[in-house]
Amino acid sequence: MQKTTQIFCVLFCMAFLFGKGVHSKMIYDAIVIGGGAVGCATARELSRYDLRLALCEKGEDVCVGTSKANSAIVHAGFDAVPGTKKAHFNVAGSRMMERLSQELDFPYKRNGALVLCFNEKDLPQLEELRERGEKNGVEGLRIVSGDELHALESALSPEAVAALYAPTSAIVCPFAMTIALAENAAQNGAEFFMDTPVTAITCRNGLYEITAGGRILQARTVVNAAGVYSDALHNMVCEHKLSIVPRSGEYCLLDKKDGHLVERTVFQLPGKFGKGVLVTPTVHGNLLIGPTAVDRSDKDATNTTADGLAYATAMAERSVPNLPMRDTITSFCGLRAHLEGDADDFIIGESADGFFDAVGIESPGLSSAPAIGQYLAQCIAQKLDATEKLTFAPQRRDIPHLRELPLEQRQALVQENAAYGNIICRCEQISEGEIVDAIHRLPGARSLDGVKRRVRAGMGRCQGGFCAPRVMEILSRELGIAQTELTKSGGDSRLLVGYTKEVQE
Length: 505
What we know:
CATH architecture of the largest domain: 2-Layer Sandwich
Low-confidence stretches: 1-24
Shape: globular
Helix content: 25-40%
Largest sheet: 8 strands, mixed
Mean pLDDT: 93
Distance between the termini: 73 Å
Structural class: alpha+beta
CATH superfamily of the largest domain: D-Amino Acid Oxidase, subunit A, domain 2
């Protein structure tokens, strides 16, 4: 009898433990794949609802793909073909951006844009662009020419005869915007899995099973916002196959002393490969020129080329002659997720039961991101019959930036926390306190570039040449890891290999 009782107890315990393991396995209501602007906007909007939510990002941080290397423009919406998803989401996202910047405390400036025409025979094309914009719902568009045009921007080429003026065009910090969206999503309950590339997606019994970074995650719905890799994820689930061509764009960033050369974003009449090379100020006071538009085969090819940068410079100088290219402090290249084929549009929506695509998000993707995120979140909430949380907090406050504060506020901040009085990056006037804050936020900085994107340490004229070692010391101390384990941008980008006396010949 005693033996029988013991056996029963063992079997009962095994059954209990097994059952506990099965039922305690986290099943998410929604998993967003991709930590760029669209993915983080979707996560933030989903966090409004009473849902279990996670985001998977293959990189070491959010904003490490297309969202970190673009023109940083909030397009007015005059370029997209009326009736397309690009047109709809561009205009809707542009209208949302100012309020969003106030809620989430990231830099945004409505500076306006000019689309230049260099030959009077092209004036009908400029008028067509205006009419297209008006059909899309863009407000305030008008044609300017002659003295009025050159009074708006004195540095323009004398060959510019007219321009489409779009006063609702704006500039934004794409790093700050994406990180702000991610932080607010995390504040409202979203989980973030970094260094978590998705390698397989299957659907069983109404649940998606996602193999990602050594994890098996389950979700009722999935959002595919994986940028240039979104075709691969789509093809794991959907019968109709897609192909993404990575379209590279190379840029030059000039010193802040040149940021005053133009006040507005200056485009040229758009062509087959996009809106062409622009000249624009940034929200931080630099001058940006680019991008090129070249289709590549490698989805990780973000190298710049001599030919590409030379072309970008030559085309930019057609708009603004005699650009001081000697003041270039860095150059970079970003990849846009261009859909192969003739369908020049976004793919947004439910492509399979519970599987939602945000595919082919190239320009104007950054401008469209808030509206895309809102739309996808509403679709998922409706599908899952989810209700909005009473506890949702829409406000997020940015890290205090010492350089932007009046003297009295600086002094008060230093009195409260002495680390804010220790300047680490002299080019951008970034303090130790700002860097520590960037590390301990959720999701926080784990690399040199993670710090740079959050507080601009290393974004000045010297590009981290002087401050990088000190930033590494702070990262090592705050994360509790050796400096030899730190990276510039995750993966294999370690900056140190060991101590000098330990290195073998």
